[in-house]
Design a protein that fits this description.
The chain has helices at 2-38, 45-69, 74-81, 86-112, 115-122, 125-137, 143-162, 168-195, 198-213. The protein starts with a helix and ends with a helix. It has 215 residues and is mostly helical. α2 crosses α4 and α5 (115-122) packs across α8. The chain contains nine helices and no strands.
């Protein structure tokens, strides 16, 4: 019973996180499109939105550091350790660059297409992740996984070809974003052992992204 309860609790927690992620992602898509459509600075709006995202994320990381570790240890302690580990340091820089580029290119996609169109194209990320896992990590996915992501890919092609209001330029930028973000996740997962957990990895990558983009 104890094992069943533990499994049930993990399912509930995972479900809550998944639903929360989908809701937050959908809300961001709608609000981002609204902001990009109404901004008086149409050409620079995606860059302004990306700047806001990175700064807010960096500040949230500072709050996390203070609340979780009392301002010492955690991300800052592990970030200091990275100075002695060249491989992990370069990985952190790569993850930060991919994090910044993925966010920026996604926002460019939102500015050129409807929010729903961009979200559909971004649904290709699982398919891209499976491909990158094989190319980067030589890790083969199961037949069921390949079949599932194949169906997603077919749906995206049908949607994109059948919708005459789609901007192909916007689709192109969104596809590039959908390559950057899965690659960020794959490299970030490799950093988790050095950073302690995925939250520390995300906070550090956001700080690196902000440091690269803001200047």
């Amino acid at each position: 019973m104890a094992q069943t309860g533990g499994f049930g609790q993990r399912v509930v927690v995972s479900s809550v996180i998944l639903v929360g992620w989908y809701c937050a992602n959908a809300a961001f898509a709608v609000l981002a499109k609204q902001e990009l459509s109404t901004s008086p600075r149409q050409r620079s709006a995606p860059f302004d939105l990306t700047f806001t995202q990175l700064v807010v994320g960096a500040l949230a990381g500072v709050v996390y550091e203070i609340v979780r570790y009392g301002g010492s240890g955690g991300v800052t302690h592990r970030a200091a350790d990275l100075r002695r580990d060249r491989v992990t340091r370069m990985t952190a820089l790569s993850v930060g660059c991919l994090h910044m580029l993925g966010g920026l290119l996604t926002n460019v996609g939102y500015s050129l297409n409807r929010a729903s169109t961009t979200q559909v194209v971004k649904a290709a990320e699982p398919m891209i992740t499976v491909t990158l896992l094989f190319v980067v990590c030589r890790k083969r996915s199961s037949a069921a996984t390949c079949f599932a992501v194949g169906l997603i890919g077919a749906g995206i092609v049908v949607f994109t070809v059948g919708d005459f209001e789609v901007s192909l330029e916007g689709v192109g930028w969104t596809v590039l974003a959908s390559i950057c973000l899965p690659l960020r996740n794959i490299l970030g997962k490799q950093m988790n052992s050095a950073m302690g957990n995925s939250i520390n990895t995300f906070v550090l990558s956001t700080w690196v992204a902000c440091g690269i983009y803001v200047p």
